[in-house]
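Can you give me the bound-state structure? Components:
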Amino acid sequence: MHGTTLSRPRLVVVGNGMAGMRTVEEILAIAPGIFDITVFGAEPHPNYDRIMLSPLLAGEKRFEDIVLNDYDWYASNGIRLIAGEHVDWIDRARRIVRGAAGTEAPYDLLLLATGSSPFVLPIPGAELDGVQTFRSVADVGDMLATARPGAKAVVIGGGLLGLEAAHGLDLRGAEVTVIHLMPTLMERQLDASAAHLLKQNLEARGMTILTGTETAAFIGDDRVRAVRLKDGREIPTDLVVMAVGIRPNAGLARATGLECNRGVIVDDFLRTSDPAIFAIGECVEHDGKVFGLVAPIWEMARVAARAMTGTPGIGFTPAASVTRLKVSGVEMASAGAFLGDSGTEDIVLRDGARGTYRRLVLRENRIVGLVAIGDASDAAWHFQLLKDGTDIGEIRDSVIFGPLADGPADPDAAVMALPDGAEICGCNGVCKGTITRAIKAFGLASVDDVRARTKASSSCGSCTGQVEALLRAALGTEYAPATVKPVCKCTGLDHGEVRRRIVGGKLKSIPAVMQALEWKTPDGCHVCRPALNFYLLCAWPGEYVDDAQARFVNERMHANIQKDGTFSVVPRMWGGVTNARELRAIADVVDKFDIPEVKITGGQRIDMLGVKREDLPTVWRDLNAAGLVSGHAYGKALRTVKTCVGSEWCRFGTQNSTRMGIALEKMSWGSWHPHKVKMAVSGCPRNCAEASIKDFGVIATEAGWDLLVGGNGGIRLRGTDLLCKVTTEAEVLEYCAAFLQLYREEAHYLERTAPWIERVGLDYVKQAVVEDEDNRKALAARFLHAQTFAQADPWAMESAAAAGAKFTHVAELT
Amino acid sequence: MDAIMTDTGFVDVAALDDIPQRGARTVATAHGDVAIFRTGDDAVFALRDSCPHRGGKISHGIVHGHGVTCPLHNWVIALATGAAEGEAAASCVPRFPVRVAEGRVLLDVSAPLAPA
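Here's the bound-state model for the whole set.
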């Protein structure tokens, strides 16, 4: 096909970007000089690397550094470049393209590489000055005009492009807020755990990250001055960068009658519906897919170049590719089905201290997806295994550690190599020498001993492994590590350790705990998730956002599920006292909803059994109307306070036990606990309220009140222990609050007070609640503080909320 | 909610976002209630809403990984196969074809899938 200059076929390329020029380079490599080439580019620049806009913005690169093909390249390859002229017409009949400035170029072959445009949110204020996109060198120029140190910038979109913009603005000294619609950052590349780490990292750099947040409007007269969110909040800003996605530039192709859908439709050889016109890159749609990352586009360029030069070759199939990125200095990689699907399994490796996470998704012993963040050094190897479809059955145990993991290294070697002055416990500033000397001098034999003596490992606990190594080294075979009973198969840590690290490490969400504590599963299990939810709720009252999906069904539905799938409903009856209005409301509800059984409970309340799921919100509304609220009979929570009639009516009564019971219930209702908590108040030692088998029992005496703890009338009967004797009702309340808070803060999830007291010893509880007055007051204060957030009737909240499908079917197909 | 028939037997039953992550919602069908699960990584599964043990409503269970724990007696059901962990192969929950397209959940309840 090589002919004279005059007879060479004319190739016109519309689009002077990475896809178009890569195709030209491929063509020049296969058959230099075969075409007479003209390139139109809308931007007044030679082809530059769009991926490097972020370093350009950050000031790490100059424009010259990111140019891929300089003007000399065009000249030396005999390419006519028309830069800065947008092509607005193709005459397919006459095979001519025409630019906006009137330049015409006839073609024999046409390549459309028009790329994509940033999506502009159609919301009020989008046209204001200072609201822009992040796609071109010109956009970077606009951003730099505003992004001075101290300026405020809002980036809308927490995907790859948005975070790159945020990173660049951050390095320029701007105060950056990222607003992302989805619940996690970069959900196209990262799973929730990896996204959590990324968010943590960006926040540590000083950015504000708002996920699950929708923008309502941009505020300003001529220039933007604030962003208003859907929830009404306003964020003052000097600049808004929209990076919410791209859409193929298919307008030119569509106008000329080429077959288009979302993008220009191409076949496996990148040919459009007109055989003289090819298309490539982000403007195309192939097999229903559009493209935004470079790897498949390079493959397109190879295929298109062969097809256009008449070189035999196979068609385009988007091959599996690994995305390796560095956002804000954080390495990450993702490839394949990194979220998994039906029939996949996971191998997860987390390093809480280094802030790394990697996950392999396996199907039948083959890697089908991977995601890594913090350390992507083995991603290339894992991706090779994915691409090759290697059966990893034989290396399954070690594959997650990478190719060099051939045998366990001595885990103690690293800590033994440290000098005596090296800090082991960062929280309490304890160095290695202090610990080793204390072990020797005081004959310490366990991690708990070391904690008590030196404070090492007593806060966040992340150095526990190193302390154990020092104990092993000092004691040799004498060292018998305490047998740890892990919470569940998702972790090697026990409940106490998990609780300690939540508080010490200031971990405030389930993903944060799972990352820092190196959970072995992506999202835990039915054993650990409810426990973590409670521990977080207890540690961070008012701050932690309850995770309904981590709760058992009863607590999620605010009613007790029965074996036939119906629910039972128990309203609170303060101290077991009711009246005609409440009883009438209950009777009306029973009639109205055809509730099959009504039963008096052992806790002096009324149980309506057999309520249908869909009736729950209306049952609650009717009960609420009569002043009845949730009795929490379904929860690991304060249940009832049973009372006798006391001195008001009973001839033996010595104190007003009913009033005392109501006061206790008013103080403690709504509180969540490791397990259910039952209380009772009896007006005399005859103990008609059975206070001696309750978690917290009160028995009136002539002199005041006996306070009893740790009773249980369940499978294993346990009578209470006497905590102490007090004289006033105020003291009863204070001791009760302190006791409940100690239990809440220290017991294991699903451990009733009885086994808890047997585990820690009554003396310990007495010391904390009775003997140490300051501690008692502090415990009680923490309980009452938590109660300010806990005392909201869940029935009222649920029945007032928009009726979601939680109580109904989402669809009926019968 | 309106269910829209498509030509393949798949019926649009809900938006994906109607189902909470690590949760389930139910659809009433001629085969009894069907539970549609959405996992933490957004995989979607449809199984009869009945545990092979005592018929517990597995839609109420805690969803973890690609499994669900029945609220009645903590049987763990693998969502991909319907099999109960550690139980005989006969203890299998019937599954139904389900897929997600453009944010909508499409369910086909014409017949359960063959046991995996």
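A couple of observations. The two ends of chain B are 31 Å apart (CA to CA). Chain B is about 0% helix and 40% strand.
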